[in-house]
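#struct-pred
JK: can someone run the complex with FE2/S2 (inorganic) cluster? inputs below
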Amino acid sequence: MISPKEVPPNSRVLTMSIDDEPVDFRDGETIYDIANRCRREVPSLCYDPRLEPFGACRLCVVDVEGIKNPVASCTTKATDGMVVRTKTKTIEKYRKTLLEMVASENRNLDINQLSGYSSQELSELLDQYSTDNKRFIGKTSGKSNKDDKNPFILRDYDNCISCYRCVRVCAEQEGDHAINIINRGFQTQISTEFGNDLRDSECTFCGQCVQTCPTGALSDKKALRAKESPGEIKKTRSVCPYCGVGCAVDILTKETKVVGIQPAMDGPANEGALCIKGQYAFDFVSHPDRLKKPMIRQDDGSFRESEWEEALQLAANGFQEVADDYGRHSVYGIASGRAPHEAAYTMQKFIRSNFGTNYIDNCSRS
Amino acid sequence: MDNEKQFQSLSNEAIIEQWSDKDAPLLPVLHAFHDRDDYLSDDTIKFISKALKIPVAELYATITFYHHFSREEKGKKNPRVCTGNVCCLNGGNELLEELKKDGATAMPCAGRCDEMVPVIIGDDVFVGKNSKTLKNIPTPIPQPNPGKYEECIFRHIRNENRCHIEGYEKTHGYVALKSILQKSPSEVIETITESKLAGRGGAGFPTGLKWNSVASAPGNPKTIVCNADEGEPGCFKDRTIMDHDPHALIEGMIIAAYATGSTRGFIYLRYEYPQTENILQTAIDEAIKNNYLGKNILNNKDFNFDLQIRRGAGAYICGEEGSLLNSLEGKHPFPRNKPPFPVTHGFEDLPTVVNNVETLASVAPVIRKGAEWYQSLGIGDLPGTKVISLSGDIQKPGNYEVPFGLPLKTLLNDWAGGAIEGQTIRAVTMAGLSGGFLSGEDLNVSLDEPSIRSKGSFLGAGGIIVFDDRRNMFEVAHQAMQFFAHESCGKCFPCRIGTQRLTERLDPNKIEIDLETWTNEVNEIGEVMKATSACGLGMAAPNVTESLQKYFHDTINTYVKK
Ligand SMILES: Cc1cc2nc3c(=O)[nH]c(=O)nc-3n(C[C@H](O)[C@H](O)[C@H](O)COP(=O)(O)O)c2cc1C
Ligand code: SF4
Ligand code: SF4
Ligand code: SF4
Ligand code: FES
Ligand code: FES
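RT: done, structure tokens with the ligand placed:
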């Protein structure tokens, strides 16, 4: 689950009852947000705390005293004195039926974790309600678009459940409006304009649609290259080195290999957003062309492999000569955005304390 | 035809210029291109996207939502043939086959169920039984009220020239409007509240209360929207009112504007009524000329009301008020989450009255003759009248204005001549299709919500379709569910998937489950749809399967094996 919303500050504190317990909340909060903050774990499939409440999946329905039909808790604001029940027998039965209905339009429930951050949501809910896609057999709804010739995003809409989180994240978070909902009813499909490939749309390949997709219908093509590789998936929290925003990321590794990147939903600078570079451009880490030994340029312009000892000595001499001849401000350091933070730190230390100049920068300062 | 030619040749830029400074420009812009080119090309969509600053993927997607916008060259010229529940009885499917050579496609109920099968070609609607008998004829005028009950809506509709302002003014036209100018807006609302006039679009919300909420809501400008989408199969009353008494609607809207302090008005008219658009536009122009509309109405400073028609493009859900407002605003026409309601957050998030045609057309008579008079029109304690659209297997289909509380059997047998010679009534639908069926043996109800709701159905917008014993109710139910599946907007899971699964379970050729599984699945889906759907479409659709099981067990047993 993407972590619940924080309490909005500076509003009146009111009281309601959730499952027979009094609960304080702030004016303007939805029942869903309050309930989840109190660990009621109301299920959902169309919810993403970063997006406007939408009200599609109806899994979040709860009983409100005095209202005949259950209400969608994600779109309903709590009111003072409201009496809410989140898990009555009837409500739980509705949820199970809804899950079975939605699973019946879904081809595959076994989704590889590398597909994306939220990719297990549907399967986990089905497990939680001890059910699967064997009931309500009928036509499936999605039309796969696996041939979309882009290197990043697999569009396997056979698994799509039309929660429209991808469309909404693209519009509301990324502001690209690259994809939308065509047709209506059971015929709805996610599509770019005129059904074009993503490359011929407004898509910037930020990958946010992939990370919010609860079914793996949109998957991370690059990460999935490693689906057969041996080893468990390990997540390591880090910060994207490409630019100055400082997006938090989880680096996915299998054994010693980086296999994918996922945005950190709780990253203070990015809240689950990344750009194409932070999201997909990590192949250089283990690229065969990557230099493993220092190279020294010779007089004829060609390079010669050397040992560190020799290369460092040569560089040190060169720097020293320049500084001696032209003064300390004749040296200007630019750290590579791809260098890890420790290296970037060392770099500025080196420039500042060695030469006594503040001429130090990073290629991706923005 | 000079006018038309000029219009046909408008440049892209000229079309945009004509609309860009108006409210709710997207639909008219799309129609202007669609009318000019007979389809919406990729280039057109890209052009409009730039001009109106709507992301191209969003605009493209919104266009695909509407049934009648054509994306193929010359597509607008292809015939659309009604294959709705009633037209199926009248040879709609055969007519479609016959016209396929001209590129014909099917469309859901087009609101002419009391006539032969309607076919839309370009901007003309024809009706006929086969391609040779197709003709373009005006909407029938309601027959004189056979019950001798006093009417409100149809009182003057049969008068000559009623659709023009001279005819309308001959019998008290715009008298109500003139009379309220001496009164305060709150007095007007009080009269409407006292009359107990309630919404005639299906939900029956008290009209006075709605107006009062808009009048007291903060935010300006306020808007009056007339819901003339009339998409419910078996309903064709609003078209009759608009075609033969358009000024009654317009006067009602102006009074609503006065009462609520609204300055903008729209009539959201369904695509399938092109002739109605012309009639309404003529009436609006007449009203403007006579200073009933526009600025300083009847020389009252600061009483301004601008009224415009917006034509839909084929989507039943656009009759749902939230969806309608999104459609007007040029957004994807999904229903809106409620609360907030349109009375505070309507058109452009500002206070808005959304009222049905019949509701608004009742307003002027109520004002003129008083709240008590209106209340007294119903039978017993029930206030007012309702127009019922009656169609299907009945001697005299058509619109009837009945007092609330009239026994259904009186309408069917005494007013409408009863079943066709030699047949008996097997079932009638309620609320068009949304109320499901009542069986021919269970017709001892009166035409009012409490009575019909006691049978698990509802009166709604007042469409009643009759099926006699030649009809197979399983197939009728299948067609009805196909309609809901076709029209489900696709926003919420229970309805998007439920209407599809129920349609599959009603398809005589595709049932592969046994009766017990069938019953469990159909009921479970129905319950979830009723309890959790996001709007009335998904909540109402299971009435079809519920009533089928209640009354027509035998039919189910012949299709679903034990
Ligand atoms: C699926 C659906 C379709 C509807 N279609 C119409 C319609 O075609 N015309 C209409 O007046 N109301 C329709 N309604 C009801 C409107 O949402 C709204 O209640 C009505 O326009 C309010 O006007 P009234 O109070 O005068 O009835 C529909 C509702 C639903 C849920
Ligand atoms: S990758 Fe980003 S820009 Fe492209 S469709 Fe997904 S959310 Fe939109
Ligand atoms: S692709 Fe994924 S996120 Fe988008 S609508 Fe389908 S299931 Fe939801
Ligand atoms: S009930 Fe049906 S029509 Fe209404 S919002 Fe849900 S999917 Fe759309
Ligand atoms: S989370 Fe509320 S409807 Fe999906
Ligand atoms: S007009 Fe064809 S079914 Fe109503």
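RT: quick notes.
Residues A 169-170, 174, 176, 178-179, 203-209 surround iron/sulfur cluster (ligand 2) (CB under 6 Å).
Chain A is about 25% helix and 20% strand.
JK: thanks, will look after standup
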